Amino acid sequence: MPTIVRPLFVALLALSLVACGFHLRGQGPASALQYRSAKVIGNGGAFNELNRQLQLMQINLNAAEPEITIQILSEGTDKQVLSVNNNGQVSEYRLFYRIHFSASRAGEMLIDDQTISLQRNISWDENSVLSKESEEANLIREMQRDGASQIVRRINAASKGINGGQSMASKTATTSQ
């Protein structure tokens, strides 16, 4: 009898997750851009990642008149000492990543001058500098991916706001993990 109850419980749990609208990050309806064509202006890691994500969404990036234009105004990284050990050596850093962007639709400003700020903590060991530098580079790439995804979600939210008669004010958001 207990062998039947366990699979039934797991199936019921899975059904309740699906029924409540649960989605993995990047899999929900807000994760895909609601436009068929786009133009991304800028350079750097966020520009490359945003282009990659839009290509995966099958957005036309070579249209003569794109529906939306996304401009990466600037991006930057910074590193701050978070903690030191008994010998005065750094044992943990906090990495910061900022993307400054704007988006317009048909010449009309959709998102004006917003900043996405992300931060991650990384432990540091002077005995394994190469592996920690590689880990740092991976965390920065992860923040670039996360920032590009947040840009897409913000554009979708602003598009719904414009369509609903509301405007999107200039804001700054911070995300940390």
Automatic annotation (TrEMBL):
One of its GO terms (biological process) is lipopolysaccharide transport. Keywords: Cell outer membrane, Lipoprotein, Membrane, Palmitate, Signal. It is found in: Cell outer membrane. Its main location: membrane. It is a lipid-anchor. InterPro entries: LPS_assembly_LptE. GO terms for cellular component: cell outer membrane; transporter complex. Transmembrane segments: none annotated. PROSITE patterns: PROKAR_LIPOPROTEIN. One of its GO terms (molecular function) is lipopolysaccharide binding. PANTHER family: LPS-ASSEMBLY LIPOPROTEIN LPTE. Component of the lipopolysaccharide transport and assembly complex. Interacts with LptD. Belongs to the LptE lipoprotein family. Together with LptD, is involved in the assembly of lipopolysaccharide (LPS) at the surface of the outer membrane. Required for the proper assembly of LptD. Binds LPS and may serve as the LPS recognition site at the outer membrane. This is LPS-assembly lipoprotein LptE. It comes from Chitinibacter fontanus.
